[in-house]
Amino acid sequence: MNQNRRDVLRISSVLGLALTAGLLKPSDVFAADWKANVFEAKTLEDAVKALGGDKFVVSKDITVNGPDIAENGAVVPVSVASAAPNTEFIAILVEKNPNPLSASFNIPAGTEAAVSTRVKMGGTSNVHALVKADGKWLIASKEIKVTLGGCGG
Amino acid sequence: MGNPMRIRANATGDVVEVKALIRHDMETGQRKDSSGKAIPPHFIQTLTAKCNDKLVLDAQMGTSISKDPFLSFKFKGGAKGDKVTITWTDNKGDTRTDEAVIA
């Protein structure tokens, strides 16, 4: 309890110093800090743990869209949509990349739980969409084959 | 300051679809240059999108987002003429903000 309070005090004073020193603009503090531990996670399970979840279930409410075969692993279009009510968080993970987590999105109320982006893939891999909805962690996956040679198949 | 983004925001009924093409190298830190030296990582870490000062998307990115990131999403509550503002910050502290008017 005491330790927590100290940490809070220490963190807030450090932030205060950074603010007065002009290192951080208030808008930077407002945006969520980049969570290095989540992005450095090496496996799907580690990434989920680093995000604060413990178990996740496969859900039909989540859809992952992408090409079945991507000829260029550097630019693979991926879109994720969640039909689960109260979706508040979406993450895209490429299972076989050195750091599976590609991007995560906080979805404020009023924003649709659907995002599209492009990711890099080191090779053929499952692409997972991890969603937090109503306090539960849901997941859906799609395998995307990568043919860097570009001949398809 | 990075290069300017291309942002398009279109309203259909009460839903606004935003498409953004960001210009950034998104260097992973795993590539080597011709002399065999590792190229240091340089990538966008956080991105926020606002519509008239209301937060509509808050994203964190890793190194495996493609070069010149593309992002699209939809939100409710915007109207034609409103402003959509996107801001990103990369791992070297560089930041850029661009805006578009909803059409």
From TrEMBL, chain A:
Pfam families linked to this entry: SoxY
InterPro entries per record: SoxY (IPR032711), SoxY_sf (IPR038162), Sulphur_oxidation_SoxY (IPR016568), TAT_signal (IPR006311)
Gene3D superfamilies named among the record's database cross-references: SoxY domain
Keywords: Signal
Domain Ig-like SoxY, residue spans: 50-151
Superkingdom, natural source: Bacteria
PROSITE patterns listed in its UniProt record: TAT (PS51318)
Keyword match Signal: yes
Signal peptide range in chain numbering: 1-31
Protein name in the entry: Thiosulfate oxidation carrier protein SoxY
Organism whose genome encodes this protein: Noviherbaspirillum saxi
Gene that encodes it: soxY
Automatic annotation (TrEMBL), chain B:
Pfam families documented for this protein: SoxZ
Domain annotation Sulphur oxidation protein SoxZ: ranges: 7-100
Top-level taxon of origin: Bacteria
Name of the protein this chain belongs to: Thiosulfate oxidation carrier complex protein SoxZ
Gene source species: Noviherbaspirillum saxi
